[in-house]
Amino acid sequence: VPTVALAALLALIDVDTPLWIDPTVGGSLSEYLRFHTGASTTTDPRNATFAYLASAEELRTVDRFSAGTAMSPELSTTVIVAVERFEGGVAAELSGPGFAGPQTLAPSGFDDEIWEVLAANHASFPTGVDVLLACGSHLVGLPRSTSIRRFETEA
Predict the structure, then answer these.
(1) Largest Cα–Cα separation, the chain
(2) Which residue among 11, 36, 39, 44 has the highest number of C-beta atoms inside a 10 angstrom radius?
(3) Strand ranges for the chain from DSSP E
(4) What single DSSP character describes residue 82?
């Protein structure tokens, strides 16, 4: 688990925020977070306020988490995803609230399909999940309000 992901989870979760943890991670993370925050875990991704994914690959099924509703978008899940690097994957241009201007990002493990999933998530705004990418001591936020423009890839 990247240091920044653990720090974010410790800062964000508590007894009132159910957490879903990628089953490939194991139970020690759940036990550690329960001890330090009192947070409970859930096996149903739709019930999670926060979720931790061990790899970008798992973003392909981000629709398994709660997107909130038009009347209560705050009921959506915030998903924290571990990535190895913020380079080496397929690039996309990001813009929207919180960006001083368009930014290019190509996290390792990201391909066209993952960017398509996140673009569809953006298209459902104000509903949708918020995504935080965690690598070492760095965190990149991709809120549901982020506009994603993929670059054309050569066949």
Answers:
(1) 50
(2) 39
(3) 19-21, 50-53, 78-82, 92-95, 103-105, 130-135, 138-142, 147-150
(4) E
The three-class DSSP label of residue 1 is: coil
The label of the residue with tokens 């979720």 reads: 51
In angstroms, the CA 101 to CA 132 distance is 19
Lookup result for tokens 């009347």: 71
For the chain, the average pLDDT equals 94
Helix (H) or strand (E) holding 32: helix 27-37
> In the chain, pLDDT over 70 holds for what percent of residues?
97
32-60 pLDDT per residue, tens: 999 999 999 999 999 999 999 999 999 99
Arithmetic mean of pLDDT, 58-72: 96
DSSP H/E element including 9: helix 3-12
